[in-house]
Amino acid sequence: MPTEPPKPPTLSERLASIRQASNTLAPATAEDAAAREFVFCVADFERVRKLIYDKAGISLSPAKQDMVYSRLARRLRATGMKSFKQYLDHLEFSRGAAEWEGFVNALTTNLTSFFREPHHFPVLSQHLRAVAEKRRQISIWCCAASTGEEPYSIAITAADTFPNGGPHISVLCSDLDTSVLATAEKGVYAPDRVDKIPLEQLKRYFNKSVTPEGNVYGVKPELRQMLSFRRINLLDPVWPVRGPLDVIFCRNVMIYFDKPTQYKILARFAPMLQPDGLLFAGHSESFLHAADLFHSLGKTVYALAARRG
Ligand SMILES: C[S@@+](CC[C@H](N)C(=O)[O-])C[C@H]1O[C@@H](n2cnc3c(N)ncnc32)[C@H](O)[C@@H]1O
Fold it and tell me: In a designed cystine with 114, which of 26, 149, 162, 245 is the match (CB 3.0 to 4.6 A)?
């Protein structure tokens, strides 16, 4: 029986074989290839991986090569560097370089939204009510606050829980990325960012303003005054956070860290929490490997494993 002649390889097969055979990272598509203005080789990617892991604990998988290229190519243009090698040499050889901030900010993923993972907020409200029976001061730390939607959702929940006045509530909002933290501090959002907030809450907690670019919604001062903002890298040896804390929100950031890094951070959270404190995690984060520190109450909410008296 005659055999069929082999089919010519498709474009993606050709790119995959280039990727395997060469030290240069092949772009995912022909458009990407045409768009690339800097050479980006395996050694460059491995250097980026090591630098961001050491600096921020972020583990980048090989699947993130295209993302890393496009985000850092912008930094090369902004700093006038001619190649990845020159850019990475600059970071490696001057540990205090101002560009470290641009590098870290470029590689963080800041996806967030108001009332993300909404099942957490009734749990928070119930907890705040229980704590208010024991203490007049409630401290919350939102440690990967991104652009602020999460800490403002916490503040709205607190304000709704105590409509007629209650305990003094403070929410410390921190993030590694200074540019998202600046957005959080401004507390001004485009209509598509607030469209999931029920109209009644939107009216109660936001001021609508008309700008040349369109409508924007600014958080009202009564909500804003609960919050304070600080850049904190969870990998730093010292956190400028005053305990004891009633609640820690640490959602959708641990997924970027490997298990040993997660464990080290959880081991530092535990002594900062009140004995009855709660830790809220992201939907795909599980702390079963830290069962000696935290136990699950379900719905990715955790309590201290050993409740101290
Ligand atoms: C995907 S966002 C999650 C935002 C929010 N917690 C939520 O769940 O909607 C992850 C955030 O973690 C921050 N981040 C990454 N590494 C960090 C680190 N080492 N220390 C503090 N924040 C970090 C990023 O800058 C980013 O804003």
Answer: 149
Specify the DSSP element, H or E, that contains 138: strand 137-142
Q: Is the CB of 172 under 6 A from ligand 1?
A: no
Percentage with pLDDT > 70 across the chain: 88
Among 27-36, 164-173, 285-294, the minimum mean pLDDT is found in 27-36
Residue located nearest, by CA, to atom 3 of ligand 1: 252
Contact predicate 136/169, CB 8 Å: no
* Token representation of residue 125: 């409200």
251: annotated active-site residue: no
At 36, the pLDDT band (50, 70, 90 cuts) reads confident
* 18-107 and 120-304 share one fold: no
User: What would the two tokens of residue 111 be?
Assistant: 């996806």
What CATH number does the domain located at 120-304 have? 3.40.50.150
In the chain, what are the domain boundaries?
A: 18-107, 120-304
Residue 164: other Cβ atoms inside 10 A: 4
The values of phi and psi at residue 14, to 5°, are -65, -45
Q: Helices 84-93 & 42-56, crossing angle to 10 degrees?
A: 30
Please indicate whether residue 127, judged by its CB atom, sits closer than 6 Å to ligand 1.
Answer: no
Name the residue type at position 125: S
Is 268 known to be catalytic? no
State how far the Cα of 33 lies from the Cα of 28, in Å rounded to an integer. Answer: 8
Please answer whether residues 173 and 228 qualify as being in contact, where contact means their C-beta atoms are separated by less than 8 angstroms: yes
